[in-house]
Amino acid sequence: MKILFCIIALVLTTNTFAQPAGSLDPTFGTAGKVLVSINSGEAKAHSIALQSDGKIIAVGHSTSPLTGKDFTIVRLLSDGTLDNTFGTNGIVTTDVQLGSEDYAYSVALQADGKIILAGSSDDGVNRNAALVRYNSDGTIDSTFGVNGIVLTDFENAQQDEIRVVKIHALTGNIVVGGSTVISTTVSKPVVARYLSNGTLDNTFNSNGIRLLWVTSLDYQYFYSVEDLMVQPNGKISAVGWRNFVNQSFSYDYWTCRISTDGTMDNTFSSDGVAVFNGSYNGNDRAYSMILKSNNNMILSGGAYTSTIRYDFTALEISATGTTTSWNRKVDFGSGVSATSYRIAEDNNGKYVMAGSSGTTNNKSFSLARLTSTSAIDLNFGTNGMVNTTFGTNALNECFDMAIQADNKIVAVGYAGNDFAIARYVGDDVADLNSFQLTSPLNLAIDRSFSNLVMDWTDAFGATSYEIEIDDDQTFSSSQTQSVSTSSYTATNLLPNTEYFWRVKASDGTNWGTSTTVWSFKTNGLDNFYLISPTDGASNQNYTSITLDWSDNTGSTSYEVQIDTTQSFSTTPQTYTSSTSTKSINNFLPSKTYYWRVRSFGNGTWGSWTDEWSFTTKQSSTASISEVEVNAFTLYPNPTTDFVYIQSNNLEGSLFVVFENSGRVVLNGTIEGALTSIQTNTLTKGVYYFQIAGADKVIQFVVQ
Q: What would the CATH number be for the domain defined by 33-424?
């Protein structure tokens, strides 16, 4: 008879290698990492943008021996190779002003594919906020500003820079944030708005620039706007930090909200600005933000802790400018300083933070992921954290990160003197083929046919599997059942049968390949033996004897048969047992008995064992147990319903049964070789039996 089981399950994907969330994406660059050398000097990527076609834009600065620091763009194909249709072999550099020191800190993509870089340009006399717009092929867009370049003095004769640029999708306006520096200890936070052609939008605070000294004491601080978001209605929410330079532990989280006309939004705090000192020692900087649908802000950055180091931090600010209970610190380890420069919400509603961690001389790209409740997501990386270095470079820093449509995470920064880009898996990627069978071992014998546990190792990401079991190696028959773990208990196999089995994992649509085929053989119903009393044993206790035999793998019960004849043809007594032992009471003394056992499993009885015999010992007293007196025997003793008188030549003899008081309760006549006396009418207790004319009195007990 053929039996086949198919256990169906769900897993995640059919890739040939397991990729836990947070691991480097092996389909990108070299083992998930790309280094781009611009030239021999310093190069750092500060910002990232993802094109709808999957191409990746990393921007920052590089160093030329002729022109100094230059705006730099690198465009990669989705697999991490340089896009040779962009600039020169995927790279564009721009000297914004002749020989100027130019730093690009942020990038924004227009709907038409044009690319805007924002930062600063220092011509040796003055540092100006700088915007440069490029066509989608990397050439400068001459229709923007002056020959593709816009330079802005946010405040006359001050040093200005842009740290973030965003595009208002409805109007095409360009919104930037940064600072105008007055001295080494004082600066003003700035938000400015440009029309799409690069001219300042004079409908925003009359001149397109909003200097954000709001209170009378703001002149004491050094400020920077690091990130902003533009609502569909044109309101601008911005975050950054302020620093009271001459004070220790002087950095504070700084946030603001500006109305579409450039005035402060007084529904946010009382004046449009809210400053927060974190729950640590007061050195708190915000570098990035998310604007939620309810207009709450989640901001991310770093906080200086009591152990003299920074930790990743994330906290939520309500739409009215107050903190909420949503707050998290991520500690990358003792002696390690870590700062988050970007936070983003992934496709599953979790929050990914990216930045760097380490010491002054050794730093790594670092990522952490939080759940929607701000708990550290322990299913990401190691304990919710990931660290990455590039080759032998001691200094590796990540400054920005973006999440692709497939939930993969792309982080950019630098390693040594090169642009560094890494891509990580955002969701667990299952490996449907990285597991193996474990039990029962291949070619195992005597396995249980009624309760066999079958195990295999977990396939990464799998939630269940398909297991096939058949007595035909071709697996030509099919029955289907389902489980959800890497273990299955077979309960309806046949005894003494060879089975073949294999397992594969599924994602519900695709299947991995089946494991190699293993085999095992089930136990037979007759694969056990009698143990005790040993065959031919004598002098056995007749009041109670324990019969014992070996376990039969797979059997669910046993049947024991006992008789006084070897052919089991006289009065065989049958007992059942769920274990391989049975205790039986009230044998006769000085009597030879024969016994045998058979097993039961899956609706089938096995064969009887060979019969064994044992002989009980003689009676030590006539007042208890089964007793033989002169020519008759009384049994069983104790009894319930009947006692039996077995006699040789007492037919016709009278007998009486009496109590301790001597009162006769029963009497009768011996009717033949075997006479039964009904005792179930008697009260429980001790009684006495006597043959008329005999001296001997036999005591027995009614239970």
A: 2.120.10.30
